[in-house]
Amino acid sequence: MSSENPDLAIAQAATLEPIETIAARAGIPAEALIPYGRTKAKVDLRALAASTPTRSGDGEHRLVLVTAMSPTPAGEGKSTTTVGLADAFTLRGRRTMVALREPALGPIMGIKGGATGGGYAQVVPMEDINLHFTGDFHAIQIANNTLAALVDNHIQQGNALGIDPRRLQIKRVVDVNDRALRHVVIGLGGPLQGVPREDGFDIVVASEIMAILCLARDIHDLQRRIAAMVVGFTYDREAVTVADLRVEGAITLLLKDAINPNLVQTLGGTPALVHGGPFANIAHGCNSLTATALAQSLSEVTVTEAGFGSDLGAEKFLDITARFGRLTPDAVVVVATVRALKMHGGVARTELDREDVEAALAGTANLHRHVENIRGFGLEPVIALNRFPNDTDAELEAVLAWAGERGFRAARSEVWARGGEGALDLADQVAAAFEDGGAFRHLYDPCDGIEASLTTIATRIYGADRVELEGRAPAQLRMLARHGWDRLPVCVAKTQYSFSDDPTLLGAPSGHVLHVRDLVPKIGAGFVVALTGDIMTMPGLPREPAALRMGVDAEGNAVGLF
Amino acid sequence: MSSENPDLAIAQAATLEPIETIAARAGIPAEALIPYGRTKAKVDLRALAASTPTRSGDGEHRLVLVTAMSPTPAGEGKSTTTVGLADAFTLRGRRTMVALREPALGPIMGIKGGATGGGYAQVVPMEDINLHFTGDFHAIQIANNTLAALVDNHIQQGNALGIDPRRLQIKRVVDVNDRALRHVVIGLGGPLQGVPREDGFDIVVASEIMAILCLARDIHDLQRRIAAMVVGFTYDREAVTVADLRVEGAITLLLKDAINPNLVQTLGGTPALVHGGPFANIAHGCNSLTATALAQSLSEVTVTEAGFGSDLGAEKFLDITARFGRLTPDAVVVVATVRALKMHGGVARTELDREDVEAALAGTANLHRHVENIRGFGLEPVIALNRFPNDTDAELEAVLAWAGERGFRAARSEVWARGGEGALDLADQVAAAFEDGGAFRHLYDPCDGIEASLTTIATRIYGADRVELEGRAPAQLRMLARHGWDRLPVCVAKTQYSFSDDPTLLGAPSGHVLHVRDLVPKIGAGFVVALTGDIMTMPGLPREPAALRMGVDAEGNAVGLF
Fold this sequence. Notes:
homodimer; 562 residues; alpha/beta; Rossmann fold; Domain 2, N(10)-formyltetrahydrofolate synthetase; Formyltetrahydrofolate synthetase, domain 3; 3 domains; 12-stranded mixed β-sheet; 4-stranded mixed β-sheet; globular; P-loop_NTPase (chains A, B); Formate--tetrahydrofolate ligase (chains A, B)
């Protein structure tokens, strides 16, 4: 095992089962399996629908959502816990599947270096999943950019629809952290080179097409949603949709393979669907609905994950994905670590290795609110205390005791070092939570209007006093009402580091104001994005990008992913 | 068969053999096959090298290059002829493979609609190959754009190398015909958003990484070439390479799967390697060297294709690809059509359906020069007269008689309608040409310098009187000499429609001047690009893009590709 990147070394040392074996274990018939190499495949949803189901529909189909306390630079290990928990259910003899997001290449080349779990709790083949995988993000990228080019070409070729180049909504995307593309001017060079206008690029995971792919039920729903996408507005302020341009067919054609979920495996041999990957701070942050629904239909226990904390991915899973997909989680795991608790309790990152029970307990204020947030949805939370090597027993015991005093289910998790074996207790607690039988309810009713929905999210989940619409937001709210788009769910783009829109406010801040500076209709996705604070839709690279450490060895194998 | 797009209808109606069967026919061992679905696969070059060869090395390994007369909007059917000729050799009992370029999505969405042959001479699965295929172009796109972002990030983060933002060579790429990205300004928005500078996007097939992928022998040669790429220059006019940025490993990692050739099949069951696809007017225009070399090692007859006419793809195949890969073609097919001959003979496109023997014979001036150009390389040309439905027997016979009088081998080809059966005579003529045993020689010696090489190409191939270096070209020539890059092969970027740099000069113009306006070093690829005329590295979309006709049907199958 290389000390530099043990995750990659562990993954490369593992003997993977053929994807046909994994598919058979999941109950996916051979005719619905489209192999991509020997250890990954797409599941052909059409062929699957046409096949005879191998599993009866009358068993248990439990859905577990994994979320976390507010992340810190110390790391929380949410994907790792998700994978390890699934492997623990497999060890307990339950037919289990895991549904995860696909990693984005931009952040991998920037800081992350990989996003497929860690240690002995990974989805594999780790290198493939972290690089191009089955090409879904590339398909989304070119579908989006083809659409953008068709829009600019329409303007160039006479602009029959009267599109106002100053009011375009569609932006081009790349799966690269490229800050130089945030603000650009395109169409320069004279009349044959397009119409000059201000523009900007987003990262692929922030695109509406990514959100659509993750919310569409099938290819026809995908096409319907793409047709409804608003690419911009006319000089008369009328919406211009993809249907107006008559290219929803071509864009859907570019996505016809991408909509099929990808099947891989965990290191514990649990079938895993890894599909779609909208960011959770700037988009809705859950893997595809098709993947989660497919996993749930095939297995007794499905473990899925939403990005960041209960304020971001989980809230969006429960209010957007679950609403569109009519999903009801049976339990919610909230991942916490002593290190993150200590940072929320005021310890500097450089001081984390020193035992500090008091700081860990002070940090439970953050965890407490995440747990209560989950209860606010009528769901039963289970705290997974994910052990890191330098955590002391005193710290771990203090946090578990704190949870016990308050009647919160909680368990240690040691999945990085021990895989599924390290989450057996956690799995048992989750299984016990299944029996509690909560009454799941969405947090807000979109019919009350966007301002009401925002206020409910801000006060109930973020601990804010109120919402303030600033900048473009008030005018956009009137625009949304004029078009009849003011009764859609809200997807808040907010920093993941704080319950507030200020990333430096750790712990459990209250009494703050949520500043919404823009409201952006995503009619194809079916929600309105509320932009708060400084959330950007295109990350940048750090001074020393992870790319500097990457390469191939003499045999052509990947090095430097982790 | 749909009258709207018969190519797609024919392809969709065909019963394809499993890719494992095709691989076995080609002699590719199972352990070297990486399936992508049921009918396409990548050939793992490392596994192949490690396996025991199933074919002895002492048989015939003939290489046939297919080129064409100067293309016209009437179409010449070069890929169709290439595929049909290979199927004809298969019918004659020869172990045959075909090596072709991958289609680019940008032009498919623009005008082309598909680029995998036509009628009963196609490579299949047609839809997959024309859409994302195995993701090679996407991998090149993100490798290139990650590199570009790393360069701009280096400048942003202190610019330790002293890169001059006004002298960057690397451009971002998309596989979209997007004229609005030709000239842009990036890095706007203040000090946190990058360094403002002029920039522009190219199409993926014009990128140096595409050229490198198509010329690299293996992944290590790939990494060596990427490391040598010149991304720009310092304020002191020193070259800045990828190696200086220390990211050749990361960029190679992103291409580690893309370097493996893709295996598919023709409608006649001939194994086909479809891999890489640099444009022939703005790049070197041949499929990958790895694909051609692999096909040749496995088969008795390999049929490959170079883009456009003898002045573009063929010249570059023979002077660049064959030089780097030490390949020697055994025969060259020059595809001609009565329609193209008539256009070169002065007939307007709208008048092509009327019989005009005289115009067809007048157009042979163009064909004649292509045939003589091939002889100039010491190779034996065979004219393939590709029949179109409205061609009359009188026209066809007149052209064949013209060829016979001059001692040129020639044969009718009816592969669109009849597949391999329609090229049996052509295959026999090509087989006869194998026995002529020409003495292949490159046209020029790069050691004579770039100006001498350019003059040789222009006078011997284009019929020009001389070369004029204009604009930036003289200064660039001095720059190339200063860096020791003036002894590399030359890749001329020139219109495909004329032997000259003026696309309206049809037939066989002579006495003209080749205007070279810029010389661009592509040190990783190993050549210098000479830009002539108005050749652009980013196409635009037409008024009615092919995308308008595309979509998926009720079963999710592609429609509108052709």
